[in-house]
Specification:
With about 60 residues, this protein is an all-alpha fold. The chain has two helices and no strands. The relative contact order is 0.06. This is Putative membrane protein.
């Protein structure tokens, strides 16, 4: 096996462990408010992205 493939696999495994830990912590500590938190987060991201795209569209006209 190539050394870079081993490094890639180890990095992928480590990333998966870290992401799964943060996912577990979010759902554990946010509890019933988790869906509200995610809704506000996604709505904010969509509004900011829409604002950015509208500004870019105005500049192209």
């Amino acid at each position: 096996m190539n050394a870079s493939k081993v490094k890639d696999g180890a990095a992928l495994l480590a990333t998966g462990i870290v992401v799964s830990f943060f996912s577990w912590a979010f759902w554990k500590y946010a509890g019933d408010d988790a869906f509200g938190i995610l809704s506000v987060l996604f709505l904010t991201v969509f509004v900011v992205d829409n604002w950015r795209l509208r500004r870019e569209l105005r500049q192209r006209k």
